[in-house]
Amino acid sequence: MSSPPEQDLIERLDQAFGAITPRSAPVGPAVRQGRRIRARRRIWAAAGLAVLVAAGVYVPHLPHRPAAPAAVTVSPPGPGAAAGLIASGTVGGHRWRVVAERPAQYGEGPGNRCVMALGVLGCGPVTQASRSYPAQLTGIVAGEMTAQYGPVAADVSYLTVRLATGQVLTLHPVTVFGARYVAFAASRHTAISRVTAYSGSRELATSAPFNAPAGAAVVNLWLRPGQPGPARASGLVAAGKTAGKTWSVTAYLGPWGACVVSRGGGPAMSACIGTQLPLGTSVLGWPEGPPRVVYGSAAAAVTHVVVTLAGKSAGTIRVPAVRAGRQKFFGFALAPGQHAIRWRAYDAARRLVASGGPIGSS
Amino acid sequence: MTEQADAEFREFMAGRWPDTVRLAYGLTGDLGHAEDLAQTALAKAYASWARVRRSANPDAYLRQIVLNENRNRFRKRRVTEWLTGRLPEPGHPDGPGGPDSGAGHDDRLALLAALRTLGPRQRAVVVLRYWAGLTETEVAAALGCSAGTVKSQAARALATLRKSAELVEEGRS
Questions:
Q1: Which CATH number, 3.90.230.10, 1.10.10.10, 3.30.530.20, 1.20.1050.10, labels domain B105-173?
Q2: What pLDDT sits at residue A2?
Q3: CA–CA distance, B108 with B92 (Å, rounded to integer)
Q4: pTM for this structure?
Q5: Which conformational region is residue A265 in: left (phi greater than 0), alpha (psi within -120 to 50 degrees), or beta?
Q6: What is the ipTM of this complex?
Q7: Among residues A326, A330, A334, which one has the least CA distance to residue A295?
Q8: Mean pLDDT score of chain B
Q9: Rounded distance between C-alpha atoms, residue B24 and residue A34, angstroms
Q10: B39 and A21 in contact by Cβ < 8 A?
Q11: Can you tell me the mean pLDDT for A287-315?
Q12: How many other CB atoms are there within 10 angstroms of residue A77's CB atom?
C-alpha cells in the first residue's frame, strides 16, 4: 500500500503524463525502421556465422527458448459438470472458472442474472445479444486474471478471440439456465486484440475491444465484415484539482467506438459508447467520487457547456467542448456537497444547442 | 514477417503508442526525444516481433526496450554534448502534444520540472514505480539493480521532489 505522499505523487504523475497527447502513431515509419534493423541483424548474423565457419568452429544447434507466454486454456463443461458452469480452464497454469448462478438465487429480479467469474459475483440485467451485438460480453479483473463472459445471439455458432500474445481461443456457446453463454479468461496484462463471431463458417461481425488503461477490456462495438470502424484518436478532455484531489477525463476513439476514462477519487473508470460516431450532446457518466467526475459527448457545433451548480459553491461553470478525433467531449468535477442541477450546451454564436439536468445528485 | 504478424504489430503499436511516449517522456523530459525514443523502441519491437508476441508480457518486453534504448541514448549523448559552465534554459514541455493546457497546468509543469532535476536512474525509478505501477522487484529487474537500490533511490527521489520549491508550495495549497 502506498503512503499518502506516494499516493499523491502517483495521482499527480498520472495527471501530468495523462495530459501528454503524442502525435498520431508513426506506424509506417516504425515498420520501415524495424525492417532496416532486422536486415542489419541478418547481415551481422550471416557475417558472424561466416567467420565461425571459416575458423572451423562447430556451431551447435542453438536452443530456442522463447519466454513462456501466459498460455490460456478454455474447456467447455464436461459430463457431470456443476450446474451453470459456462467454461473453465487455466491461465499460465492457474485455474479459472465462470459459472452462471441459478436465477433468483441472490434475490435478483426477473431479467437479471448473476455470474460468478474468477470468484467475483456480478449481477445485472441480462442484455440480449442480437444481430448487431452477437455477444454481450462483460469484463472483470480479479488478481492477475481478467475474464469476459456473456450471452450470445441465437445464430452464433462460435467466437474466436485473438489475444495480443498471438494465441487464438475458440469459444463454443453453452446453454445455461435457458441462455447461451460464452466465457474465457486471460492474464490481466494481455490485451485482447479481436473477437469475431461466426455463424457456421460465415463471419458475422468483429469487435476490436478497448483495452482500458485500468480494468478489463471492453467489447463494445461490433463491425460487420468490411465495415470500417472509427479512426483512432485520443485526447485529454478535462483535468483539474477539486477538493484537493486531481481528476481527469480522457477520450479514446477507435474501432471500439468511443471510450472515456475518468480518473477521480477512486480507481480509473472506463465507459464505452456502443454506437457509431459522431455522438450527439449528452451527459454520458458521473462515476462516484469525491470528486464526482462528470463527462459527456458534444455535437460538432458545440463550443462550450454551462453547468449550473447548487449546494456548496452554487453558481455556474463554463466547460469547453474538446475535440478528440471526430468527436467532441466535455468534462468537469463536482466537489462533495455540490450538485449540477442543469447543463446547457452552446455553439460559437452562443445559440443553445442542447440542455439537460440535473446530474450527479445522489 | 507474415502479413498477419505485420497487421498484429500495427495494431499493437497503435494501441501502445501513447503510453510508450508517456513512459519515454518520463525518462527523457522532452516530448521530441520521447517520440523519437518511442518510435525507435517500437521499431526494435517490430524487428523482434516474433519474440515479443510470444513473450508472457509484450508490454513488459516493450518497456524493457524503451529502458535499454534510453540508456543507449545517454551513452551516445556523452560524445555529442559538451559541458558548459552555464546552466541551459530548462526544456519547456509546452508545445504540440505537451501538457500545456487545461486545469492543473501549473501543477503539471511544476511536477515535470521537478522530475527533470533528478538523475536518470532516480527518474526511471520514479516513473516505473509510481507511474507505471511496477513493484520494487519489477523495477529492480527492469533496471538491472537490486530491490534495495530501488528502495533507496525512490526514497532519495521523493525527498528531492519534496524539497522542490514548486512542489512544497503545491503541497501547502
A1: 1.10.10.10
A2: 52
A3: 12
A4: 0.54
A5: alpha
A6: 0.78
A7: A330
A8: 76
A9: 18
A10: no
A11: 88
A12: 17
DSSP structure class, residue A223: B
Domain boundaries, chain B: 1-81, 105-173
Residues 6 or more apart whose CB falls under 8 angstroms from that of A192 comprise: A148, A161, A162, A163, A164, A186, A209, A211, A217, A219
A166: nearest CA partner in chain B:
B53
Return the C-alpha cell found at B78. Answer: 556523452
Are B1-81 and B105-173 the same fold in CATH? Answer: no
Query: What residues of chain B lie within 8 A of the CB of A211, using their CB?
Result: 15
Å from B12 to nearest chain A CA? 7
CB neighbour list of residue A212: distance below 8 Å, 6 or more residues apart: A218, A259, A261, A268, A270
Tell me the C-alpha distance between A258 and A287, whole Å: 17
C-alpha to C-alpha distance for A293 and A245, rounded to whole angstroms: 11
| From A17, A38, A164, residue closest to B22, measured CB to CB | A17
Instruction: Report the helix count and the strand count for chain B, using DSSP H and E.
Output: 9, 0
Q: Between B44, B53, B127, which is nearest A165 by CB?
A: B53
Query: Under 8 Å CB-to-CB from B29, ≥6 apart: which residues?
Result: B91, B93, B112, B115, B116, B123
Instruction: Assign B111 a pLDDT band (cuts: 50, 70, 90).
Output: confident
CATH of domain B1-81: 1.10.1740.10
Write the pLDDT tens digit of every residue in A207-219.
999 987 767 888 8
Residue A12 in grid coordinates: 499527480
Write the CB contacts of A188 (distance below 8 Å, at least 6 apart in sequence).
A141, A143, A144, A145, A146, A216
